[in-house]
Write a structure and sequence with these properties.
It is a single chain. With 387 residues, the protein is α/β, with parallel strands linked by helices. The protein is built from 13 helices and 13 strands. It has helices at residues 6-9, 17-28, 47-57, 72-86, 102-113, 129-136, 161-166, 185-198, 255-268, 274-285, 289-311, 335-346, 372-385, and strands spanning 34-35, 96-99, 119-124, 140-147, 153-154, 167-172, 201-205, 231-236, 249-253, 324-328, 348-349, 351-352, 363-367. The strands form 3 sheets. The protein has an 8-stranded mixed β-sheet with strand order 2-9-8-7-6-3-4-5, with helices on both faces. A 3-stranded antiparallel β-sheet has the order 10-13-12. Helix 4 (72-86) runs parallel beside helix 10 (274-285), helix 5 packs parallel to helix 6 (129-136) and helix 5 (102-113) packs across helix 9. Bound molecules: pyridoxal-5'-phosphate. Pyridoxal-5'-phosphate binds at residues 39, 101-103, 106, 127, 173, 177, 205, 207, 236, 238, 244, 249.
Length: 387
């Protein structure tokens, strides 16, 4: 076998490999693992969406190659949903592109913008794809720490001037994975201001925009950049409609950025299976009661985890969005050591914060994609540890 290309070596080692090994060892010892490490809703896709898929899959017109940028009807549904939700009108032909899940668009966008030496501003901790795609595209990541004392917002003033000059794209993600923080108006205004001053394309990852609680409604970056001069925003049907396995999302915003992403995609993939796009239309335009029901389930689980952790001395806030709880590891442990210890001693799996970047060290993430009984059982196992 020839040696793999150097670019493959640029991909950072899989930080969860140690955890996976421990999980397998524990399972082989017959331990019933309570797994809170996966950001994948356990709730089935709503029935109306599944039914639409069943019909669409029998239609031979859907068996051929789809159009790379998405069916006009899907892009129109996405534009209408967006305008109703955020009050910003979009041209479905130029300002919307269908994606094979938002991850696909997030990965490909930097390839359209970064040349050797160009900088991408990336939050740390953050969704790992921002860093990997930047490295593979030949760009240079600059990590913006998301500090707890700053509400898990980046301090844009702390970015050195020469870095700002070289920056071409800036990743922003609210509601945020892994911290559970949500964006406020001031943050979006500061980001748009930076983009305007330094000619930077803002890539706002809004995958969790609909997973919100306690009356909080997430904002779109386009509400702050209404002329769509500086921004592209990534939306996902995965979390909102419990459709992670279906692979569908869309990007909206600056027409040049959307079309450059589309141009790349013509050469990389052949679009989203049309039956899945039809199911996506049903999701976006059909009855939205299932979204409210899902949010009620996650809000209840969030309270169980937050109250449970606080009752055993692990103090955490109550996030208004996402299905993640971001907590400090107890003194004396690294994130990875703590996560390994939990698997070994009590069969509870959490994600070590260091897997999301250097600034994630000292934290662990709990994903509330597991049912109430297993959450209660996990809290009791943790209580028994007396940490
Ligand atoms: C912050 C963030 N963005 C994007 C994605 C990708 O979601 P999808 O490709 O399913 O739309 C995820 C998935 O976990 C995520 O956490």
């Amino acid at each position: 076998m020839p040696k793999a290309a150097p670019r493959v070596e640029k991909i950072p080692p899989y930080l969860f490999a140690r955890i996976d090994k421990k999980k397998n060892e524990a399972r082989s010892r017959g331990i019933d693992l309570l797994d809170f490490s996966i950001g994948d809703p356990d709730i089935p896709t709503p029935a109306n969406i599944v039914r639409r898929m069943q019909e669409a899959v029998t239609d031979p017109r859907n068996h051929q190659y789809p159009s790379y940028e998405g069916m006009p009807a899907f892009r129109k549904a996405a534009a209408e949903w967006f305008e109703k939700r955020f009050g910003v009108a979009l041209d479905p032909d130029k300002e919307v592109v269908a994606l094979i899940g938002s991850k696909e668009g997030i990965f490909h966008l930097p390839w359209a913008y970064l040349a050797e030496g160009d900088v991408a501003l990336i939050p740390s901790p953050g969704y790992p794809v921002y860093k990997v795609t930047t490295l593979l595209a030949g760009g240079t990541p600059y990590f913006m720490p998301l500090k707890e004392e700053n509400g898990f917002y980046p301090d844009l003033d702390a970015i050195p001037e020469d870095v700002k000059e070289k920056a071409k794209i800036c990743f922003v993600n609210y509601p945020n994975n892994p911290t559970g923080a949500h964006g406020d108006d001031g943050l979006y205004e500061r980001v748009v201001d930076l983009a305007a001053k330094k000619d930077i394309l803002i890539c706002h990852d809004a995958a969790y925009s609909e997973v919100t609680y306690d009356g909080y409604r997430a904002r779109s970056i386009l509400e702050f950049d209404r002329d769509k001069r500086y921004s592209i925003e990534f939306h996902s049907l995965s979390k909102t409609y419990c459709m992670t396995g279906w692979r569908i999302g869309f990007a909206v915003g600056n027409s040049e950025a959307v079309q450059n992403l589309g141009k790349l995609k013509t050469n990389i993939d052949s679009g989203v299976f049309q039956a899945v796009q039809e199911a996506g239309i049903e999701a976006l335009t059909g009855n939205q009661d299932s979204v409210e029901a899902m949010k009620a389930i996650f809000a209840r689980r969030r309270d169980l985890v937050v109250d449970g952790l606080n009752s055993i001395g692990i103090n955490v806030g109550r996030p208004k969005a996402t299905f993640y709880i971001w907590a400090h590891v107890p003194k004396g442990y690294t994130s990875a050591d703590f996560a390994e210890m939990l698997i070994e001693k009590v069969g509870v799996v959490v994600t070590p914060g260091s897997g999301f970047g250097d600034e994630g060290e000292g934290y662990f993430r709990i994903s509330i994609t597991t049912d109430d009984d297993r959450i209660r059982a996990a809290i009791e196992r943790l209580r028994g540890l007396r940490i």
